[in-house]
Description:
Blueprint: E1 25-27, E2 36-41, H1 47-58, E3 62-70, E4 95-102, H2 120-135, H3 147-161
Antiparallel strand pairs: 1-2, 2-4, 3-4
GO molecular function: structural constituent of ribosome
GO cellular component, one term: mitochondrial large ribosomal subunit
Organism: Hyaloscypha bicolor E
Amino acid sequence: MATQRAIRPPIFGKKQVFLPNFVLTLLRTPSSPPNFATFLVPLSLNKLDLRDYLFHAYGIRVHGVRSYIQMKKITQDKPGSKRPKPRKWFRPKSIKKMMVEMERPFVWPEEPKEFDSWDKSTFDAANKDRTQHEEMFRPDFREKPTGERASMAEQAKALLQGKESWRSTPKENEWDINGEEVEVETDVELPKTGP
Length: 195
């Protein structure tokens, strides 16, 4: 006859976190198996903190944690600066990722098809406007052709290929008004000035 064995309390999970002052971001990784989850964590968080947090906050038992710090590429200036400074090197803050192996599998919810409830169109328009505005402050902005110049190049190409014909400039007297000038607003009363 088989006897039931008492379930031991976990060895870990003694550090209780009631009000965490950090942010964990769960990353969507479709290539990972369902019992693995990847998090974007602060640089100060360690493996034991993540394991304790997942156990106390969500009741998830973790078999193992793998972590790595990903360094960002060196750029010529701080991102988002108002006045770019060429040849002033800056390395953005590194990011830390942790992958946990969970006891039970986790299934992601389906991605939404429509983003109307999040007002994504406004976000995309603001993002496009911001990137266009930032382009004006780049050091090579004056070297790039403007939209008018590109339009003139297209018109010249169409003329050379014979798709459009050349229209001559109007003569001097073509723009003259025939007849007398006519007052448009006759019923407007102007206020009197002076005594």
